Amino acid sequence: MFKLPIDRPSLLDLFCCAGGAARGYQRAGFYVVGVDIKHQPNYAGDEFYQADALQFLVEHGNQFDAIHASPPCQDHTRSFTPYDHGTAHLLPDTRNILSSIGKPWIIENVPGAPMRADFLLCGCMFKLPRLRRQRLFETSWRGFALLPPCHHPDPIVTVVGHGIPSGSPYLGKVNGKEYSRLARLAMGIDWMTRDELAQAIPPAYTEYLGGQLMNVLGANRRLSNKACSGFGVGSSVSNSVGGCTPNR
Ligand SMILES: C[S@@+](CC[C@H](N)C(=O)[O-])C[C@H]1O[C@@H](n2cnc3c(N)ncnc32)[C@H](O)[C@@H]1O
Q1: N or C: where does the chain have the smaller number of CB atoms within 10 Å of the terminal CB?
Q2: Which residues pair with residue 119 across a beta bridge?
Q3: How confident is the model at residue 78 (pLDDT cuts 50, 70, 90)?
């Protein structure tokens, strides 16, 4: 079914929208397969399937080397007036299924979501100094990095909804079209509509995390090779990795 290449690892990109996350993982070296409940004609990954993410994960998750998921954030965000979008269950449900599959995974969401903040990333930590867009990432390997705190010396760009957010330093100074141009520039994304942009993860974030994921996959492979060649067979090391049948 999938056209997974043999020369690079594959990543399943759940709740993919137009593929802000996908583009970053591609830059990190992954072949990326996206899934979204809605048709996504602008998807930036390598393959796209319109389907329910959880059902797809159960049926196909174990065919990929790694998995990323961006469940809807509307019921977790602090920036809207509280209302029930009806999708809050998707984050814990996704985590439960991911944990049962045993492949390395990353879940992304907004500050306020019920998840561990292994990484809290913002545009100012990359070469996106104007972008204020904090996102949390929980990882199956409990990733950790010492990162600088948020610092935005220039007027900040926030990308929510359709227009110029209230309180923005650009309000009254530029029109909506010009703000959309600034928003695309700030996010490092040039292929999305304004609606898609408002939902996206800047590719710089997942390029960074994709590098970490590559290291995790490399470490698993090295452990797997050792286990296959007899080292540690029957130990907790060989039990923690897949890919070979231990000699007993
Ligand atoms: C926050 S956006 C993802 C943004 C994307 N990761 C990016 O970087 O561009 C969430 C997406 O989840 C999709 N979605 C909502 N419920 C879904 C479901 N049950 N199965 C698959 N996709 C779903 C929405 O259509 C939306 O495109």
Answers
A1: C
A2: 137
A3: low
Fold (CATH) for 10-236: Rossmann fold (3.40.50)
* 5-56 tens-digit pLDDT: 999 999 999 999 999 999 999 999 999 999 999 999 999 999 999 999 999 9
Domain boundaries, the chain: 10-236
Is the CB of residue 20 below 6 angstroms from any atom belonging to ligand 1? yes
The CB of 200 under 6 Å from ligand 1? The reply is yes
Q: How far is the CA of 171 from the centre of ligand 1 (A)?
A: 29
Average pLDDT, the chain: 89
pTM beyond 0.70: the answer is yes
Angle between helices 53-60 and 90-101 (to 10 degrees): 0
Q: What is the distance in A from the centroid of ligand 1 to the CA of 190?
A: 19
Cβ(23)–Cβ(47) below 8 Å:
no
CB within 8 Å of 225: residues ≥ 6 apart: none
What tens digit of pLDDT does each residue of 128-163 get?
999 999 999 999 999 999 988 899 988 999 999 888
Q: Verify whether ligand 1 is closer than 6 Å to residue 34 (CB atom).
A: no
Q: Is 52 in the pocket of ligand 1 (CB under 6 A)?
A: yes
What φ, ψ does residue 202 adopt, rounded to 5°? -60, 130
Calculate how far, in angstroms, residue 166's C-alpha sits from the geometric centre of ligand 1. Answer: 25
